Amino acid sequence: MDPFPNNTPPKKIYRLLRSAATFAIPVSVAALVGCQSYHPSPLDATRRAGAWRERSPTDEKVRDFAKQLETTAPKSVNFNPSDGLTMAEGEVVALIYNPDLRIARLKTGVAQATAEHAGRWDDPEFSIDVLKVTQSVPNSWIVGSALSLTIPISGRLAVEQSRANGELHSKLARVAEEEWKTLRDLRKVWLTWSADRLRLDQAERIVGSLDSVVVTTGKLAEAGEIPRTESALFKIEQESRKADIARLRGRVKEGEQEIRSLMGISPTAPASMRPTLAAPSGNDRGKLAETNPTLIRLRCDYAIAELTLLREIRKQYPDLELGPNFEDDQGQSKIGVIGAIPIPIFNSNKGGIAAARAEREVARAAYETELERTEGRLAAMRARLDGARSRRQSLDSNVVPLVDRQIDDARNVLELGEGNSLVLLESLVRAHEAKIDLIEARLEESDTQNEIRHLLGPDRIAASNK
Fold first, then answer.
1. CA distances from 101 to 108, 159, 179 (A)
2. Are 450 and 184 in contact (CB under 8 A)?
3. What are the boundaries of each domain within the chain?
4. 459, 74 Cβ separation under 8 angstroms
5. What's the Rg (C-alpha) of the chain?
6. Phi, psi angle pair for 177, to nearest 5°
7. 94-265+283-381, what's its fold?
8. Residue 303 has pLDDT above 80, yes or no
9. Packing angle, helices 350-394 and 421-456, rounded to 10
């Protein structure tokens, strides 16, 4: 059937369509003006790899951040990597270049964009109807158009804005948590690498000590003053320690690369690290729930769960749809208002409310159990620290001086030809093992201090809550 029969004047059709377009054109123009365009952003692995290899601990970005810390941190960081990076200086580099922290910070940009645009009204909806009366009537066309706008009388949008801000705070808290974990991991790897450096030094020292003893015992064996089997034991011990040196050198190189990876610099970047077994102690100021980054983040998550429940409750109350309406019915123009409001009888968002209540209980349990777990682990770490400190003090004050004195006595007696060479060998081995034990004790003590510091949280959080 021809939609425009011959008896329909073209001017009449044009007038009807123009009347309908009275609303359509302004709305369409406004929609097009507010739209954004797409611009592709392809990956460039070559450029990124080159920028990564050019990173250095002396970059301007790192120096500026170090200066900022010097003025804002409770304990200033004297940043001067020219003579080798200290552990504290390595922490500054990691906060700038660590790859995991980069991802965590970019995710806050997503939450920030959501928070900036949350709580907006829904876009208005334009509709148009064009009908034709099938019977033969003078004015057979019916054209109607309407513009409806959702008016949020339930208060849901205000809650969504608050919830989006809560999501942003949670993401920022997660960044702080990831930063603190990264520094904990960096300190742990740095301490382990430093211990391997000291173990390597001790292995090289005992090999050097055995060099002269191997020569001396070899001469004594040739003179028949000691059995050759005893002289051979020194050579066997020396070769065994040389194998330890090769193994420890590999571990030292591996540890250095792990440190570089955590700092976010390439394996070939110009940087040297200074070993240390002294871990900074934790800060006991303030309540644990107010300083531990994980607990702070979980408290933000619980606040989001509360706002989610409030939003779902607000959703059960309807929003009003209201707008102007135009109609041309068989030559008669009509203008008015259309409105609609849902009636919350059958659904009332019961499912969404029930799920939000359950999620809130999950968030509550996550916070409470983490608080209990953190308190328990902190107590365990303090007990371990007491034991490690006592062991280290005993080795440092008693065992190591005794075995060093034993080596001197055995060496003097052997040189006089009156002692047993095996006593000297045993003394050298025991002295080496005692010093290795001392390194292990110092590492355990520093590792435990590092874990306690991680549980207590950063000093700057504690200071801000004073």
1. 11, 30, 7
2. yes
3. 94-265+283-381
4. yes
5. 38
6. -65, -45
7. Outer membrane efflux proteins (OEP) (1.20.1600)
8. yes
9. 150
Three state DSSP letters for the chain: CCCCCCCCCHHHHHHHHHHHHHHHHHHHHHHHHHCCCCCCCCCCHHHHHHHHHCCCCCCHHHHHHHHHHHHHCCCCCCCCHHHCECHHHHHHHHHHHCHHHHHHHHHHHHHHHHHHHCCCCCCCEEEEEEEECCCCCCCCEEEEEEEEEEECCCCHHHHHHHHHHHHHHHHHHHHHHHHHHHHHHHHHHHHHHHHHHHHHHHHHHHHHHHHHHHHHHHHHHHCCCCCHHHHHHHHHHHHHHHHHHHHHHHHHHHHHHHHHHHHCCCCCCCCCECCCCCCCCCCCCCCHHHHCHHHHHHHHHHHHHHHHHHHHHHHCCCCEEEEEEEEEECCEEEEEEEEECCCCCCCCCHHHHHHHHHHHHHHHHHHHHHHHHHHHHHHHHHHHHHHHHHHHHHHHHHHHHHHHHHHHHHHHHHHCCCCCHHHHHHHHHHHHHHHHHHHHHHHHHHHHHHHHHHHHCCHHHHHHCC
Question: For residues 447, 451, 456 and 458, what is the CA-based torsion angle, rounded to 10 degrees?
Answer: 70
Residue 375 buriedness (CB in 10 A; 0-12 / 13-18 / 19+)? middle
What does the alpha-carbon distance between residue 140 and residue 142 come to, in Å, rounded to a whole number?
7
Residue in 81, 75, 107 with CA at minimum distance from that of residue 94: 81
Span 59-111, pLDDT tens digits: 888 877 877 776 666 555 677 777 888 898 899 999 999 999 999 999 888 88
Report residue 177 as tokens. 């948590």
Contact assessment for residue 367 and residue 294, using Cβ atoms and an 8 Å cutoff: no
What does residue 223 show for φ and ψ, rounded to 5 degrees?
A: -80, -5
For 178-232, the pLDDT digits (tens) are 999 999 999 999 999 999 999 999 889 888 877 777 777 777 777 776 777 777 8
